[in-house]
Amino acid sequence: MFPKSTNAGALALLAAPIVVIAAVLIQPTLSGDASTQVTALTSHHQAMITGMTLSIIALVLLIAGTLWLALALAPRAPRLAIAGAVLGVFGALVVLFENSVAAAAPAIASGLGHARATAMLERVHSGAIAAAEPLALLGDIGIALLGIAALKAGAPRWAAAAIAVGALGEGAGFATSTKALVVISFALLFAGLLPAVRSLTARPARRPAAEPAQAAALS
Questions:
Q1: Which three-class secondary structure state does DSSP give residue 207?
Q2: CA dihedral in degrees (112, 115, 120, 122; nearest 10)?
Q3: Which tens digits make up the pLDDT trace of 173-201?
Q4: Do 103 and 95 meet the contact criterion of CB atoms below 8 Å apart?
Q5: CA triplet 96, 15, 159: central angle to 5 degrees?
Q6: What does the pLDDT look like over 81-107, one tens digit per residue?
């Protein structure tokens, strides 16, 4: 159904939840509290850096995968596909912006004392990140809409439900800094995306050639 080159989009979509789970498990904390972040960056510097890097990689994969999924679903559910793509990509870009701003945290934590670094991060969190944070929820809604579109494209009902619940669950998990909820939600999202991708990439079975006797009877 799709050329081999577009399979990269499907692989990116499936890889994104796995990379996020790895990032969350590696990072000591998901807390947005400035003091907690400074402590983690001081005590577990390499783990925090690795987790933040993996998170950015996962976002890039998610954006590519979301675009592929929307394009694959567009012929069968155009309105849901377009809405899901716009909201999903926009939300992911917002989170990517937040993570890019947060990338300065390691340098701040290592270059300043705990008190000054905490004060500096609090200013960062109360500025650009705080303003953009509510918009990130749009990405979760977009992925949920694509899950509904996948149902119309032939994906199992449970897979569509898993995509929607996983997308909304991970948003709640990050908002409450609950690692277990984030991991479970992304695992659920992956479980739903896998059969959806299979249904979209499966080639239709070839029709058997007509038997010579049947052809003769029709002539």
A1: coil
A2: 150
A3: 988 889 999 999 999 999 999 999 998 88
A4: no
A5: 105
A6: 999 999 999 999 998 887 777 666 666
DSSP secondary structure letters along 53-76 = HHHHHHHHHHHHHHHHHHHHHTTT
Q: State the Cα–Cα distance between residues 63 and 139, nearest whole angstrom.
A: 10
DSSP state of 135: G
Q: Using 50, 70 and 90 to split pLDDT, how confident is the model at 141?
A: very high
CB 170 within 8 A of CB 183: no
In sequence order, the 6+-apart residues with CB closer than 8 A to the CB of 136 are: 91, 94, 95, 98, 171
Q: So where are the chain's domains?
A: 4-202
CA distance 199 to 106: 43
Separation CA 16–CA 66 (nearest Å): 10
Query: In this structure, what token pair is assigned to residue 203?
Result: 């080639």
Question: Cα separation of 205 and 217, whole Å?
Answer: 25
Q: Cα separation of 69 and 162, whole Å? A: 16
Tokens 């694959």 belong to residue: 72
Whole-number pLDDT of residue 187: 97
